[in-house]
Design goal:
By secondary structure, the chain is mainly α. It is built from two helices and no strands.
Length: 83
């Protein structure tokens, strides 16, 4: 191997090393970005959560109203049956 070949090999080794380090940094940044994205809801997700909370509140109120009407109907039926 000539001196020129050795110099080229050394340069290639250093370039490969720099590339490996850059890829490792990029991978770490992508993983960190994924963690941030996973822990921070997007605007779309936040809007969906808000909509579902509103729907939940409406359904709870409807359930409460139906429960009151059923209780009233049961009381009237008992009164009729008891005569």
């Amino acid at each position: 191997m000539t001196v020129g070949d050795m110099d080229t090999t050394t340069r290639l080794d250093r370039a490969q090393e720099r590339l490996d380090k850059a890829l490792a940094r990029l991978d770490a940044a992508l993983q960190k970005g994924g963690e941030i994205a996973a822990s921070t809801p997007s605007q779309e997700v936040a809007e969906e959560i808000s909509r579902l909370n509103e729907e939940n509140a409406r359904l709870r109120e409807a359930t409460h109203s139906v429960s009151r009407r059923l209780d009233s109907t049961i009381s009237r039926l008992k009164a009729v049956l008891e005569g």
